[in-house]
Amino acid sequence: MHNEPLAFRMRPKTIDEIAGQQHIIGKDTALYRMISKGHVPSMLLYGEPGIGKTSLAFAIAGTTQLPFISLNATVSGKKEVEDVVAEARITGKVILFLDEIHRFNKLQQDTLLPHVEKGSIVLIGATTENPFHSVNPAIRSRCGEILQLKRLDSKDVIKLIERALHDKERGLGKTPIEMTDDQIEKISEGVNGDARKALTLLESIVSASDEEDGKILIEDWLIDNLIGRIGLVGDKKGSHHYNLLSALQKSVRGSDVDAAIFYLANLLETGDLIAVSRRLLVMAYEDVGLAAPQVGPHVLAATEAAVRLGMPEARIPLANAVIEMCLASKSNSAYKAVDAAIRAINDGKTGDIPLHLRDTHYAGAAELGHEGYQYPHDSPIGSFGGWVDQQYLPDKIKDTEFYTPVIAGEERKLAGIYQRLKEFRKKK
């Protein structure tokens, strides 16, 4: 009887047993060749939970037969790091697998880094956070490889499940299990590329199934029931959360309703309603903008309603907002205009405010030359309202244009007005 979970027992012993990740460790990659020849570079493994970071580290150690030590940065202190250093002095070289490496503190780094630099300790760090954001540059600079792992595809998960079903030493092969190809495929599709969840789910299904005539019979309803309890990968503080927010915004920007709704649903399942609402409100003004100015207030109302309602009802106004933004005309001209002005200011392209625009609400303003301002409302121009030709920008940048209209939706009308006013100035 095994005490360890199936996912732990089925962890690959060599790099040839790795499921998926062929872009990193396939037989035609440089990393595979290096490890096969016994050379292991220090590296960072980046990816979502359950996609094989720990398994890859163990497989590398098993292939090379180098001494292997596994630590977790959230609970390890200076003493544990010093033990690794002592082991390296004895054996000459040791592989240190450091999970949650973004939690590595400075004291641990100071103890470990010199030994990583000279090669007596090979560091394999794993993180669910973007290493360029979360891992100290001192660590990154000593890792020759920064590898982003991918979710397994369905075929890779199927191979993993079949291996576990037939493996008599580490898997479930000693017990006859009747499971159809369709059932295996259903499990593979239900775990969203997470190898650990696939094996954990398989073990739960087998444990909960009835035995008949010496065989374990797997029933469809049991698979459906357990898959429904798995939940989604990701959390509201991890990189995956920000990738989902990015995917949502880019799908809305690309007017793909189905993709946008999918990413919205995924985000809502992770539970961060405030972050989702905030991003949707930004999108209304950044991506839809002046082309459909009514969308901004609509999205504001939807997000306020969502926060007031809470989940699960919050999904309804937010879905309305997402679909409206997807199908609305789009313009980024407003935010591009203000960004262009900010760049100009930071580049030193400024100047003195024209005298006639300065404050005159005090005695003595005229003596300082703060006069000459013409009140536009006193000069009606057609149905537009009031307009006079006077300079508003500082002299040094008086001819600079920051705003470039997008000819879309309601902004088409605004663009026409903008162009006419430019023409009036040229005539003057």
From TrEMBL:
Residues 39-151 form the AAA+ ATPase domain. Keywords: ATP-binding, Nucleotide-binding. It comes from the Bacteria. It holds the Pfam family MgsA_C. One of its GO terms (biological process) is DNA synthesis involved in DNA repair. GO terms for molecular function: ATP binding; ATP hydrolysis activity; DNA binding; enzyme activator activity; single-stranded DNA helicase activity. Belongs to the AAA ATPase family. RarA/MGS1/WRNIP1 subfamily. This is Replication-associated recombination protein A.
